[in-house]
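Hi R.,

Here's the chain you asked about this morning:
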Amino acid sequence: MHNYLDFEKPISDLEGKIHELKKLASEDESIDTSDEVGRLEVRAREAMVDIYSKLNPWQKTQVARHPQRPHFVDYAAGLFTEFTPLAGDRKFSNDEAIQAGLARFRGTPVAVIGQEKGNDTKSRIKHNFGSARPEGYRKAIRVMEMADRFGLPLVTLIDTAGAYPGIGAEERGQAEAIARSTEMCLNVKVPIVSVVIGEGGSGGAIAIATGNRVYMLEHSIYSVISPEGAASILWRDSTRAREAATNMKITAEDLKSLGIVDGIISEPVGGAHRDPDAVIERTGTVIADALKELSGRNGEQLRSDRRQKYLNIGRHL
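And the predicted structure, written out as tokens:
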């Protein structure tokens, strides 16, 4: 069963009736509900298309955070072979929110870095809900250095509400670790392709998303702060998150129009969680095309283009 969002109630009602009719027919073979089920399925599909064709920014935020949305582990399993995760920052400990390692992408050796939120209570606690501590970003730096040394293209998958703001993280240099990770993204001489697969929150996201090519899934969000955080700062009222989301321009369409991201990866109607395999395959195709485009450029050109890309952001506004 799907976990329905509050604005999906018309879909929930229709699919609930479909489920009841199918269950009734399975329990009593003399009852034929196929015609009614067919009509309800058409109505449910039409309702879903209608609702998802006009999502507002706050509703997109809810979809980006959907608990059944595919996470890093799903993309890693669907896109990469021989994925070998690397652990530890060689300074303090290992951070589970950031997953990083070496793999093959359609036969090509690559380095992979991404944030993992977890999909149940145990795994969410293990991965700290995708919010990394300093050792996570230092692990990312270690893998970026390795990619640069061995000439491996770098693929990063972003899904975090932001870096962890706890006292211990601050004591161990959270801001410095994020800055160093962003700096390393800018300095490496290998192609970097980044995809925001859910939430791209604050410096915790850009620390691994400063790529030559940056893409967003259709219903993902990317912002300097969460809508709730912005509402708390601007109006001292986190319940105005809906208003903040609208004003912040956090959707893929907004950021594409502003020149901050390079493209949008379409999702199945109803969001990525409705057909994870399809959206993972589309993401893989976009990554493959980007890597092919960037493969003809030398290291200095890749680094120069990447730096200029970020210097240009906002200049045309």
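The chain has two domains: 6-54, 61-312.

Let me know if you need anything else.
M.
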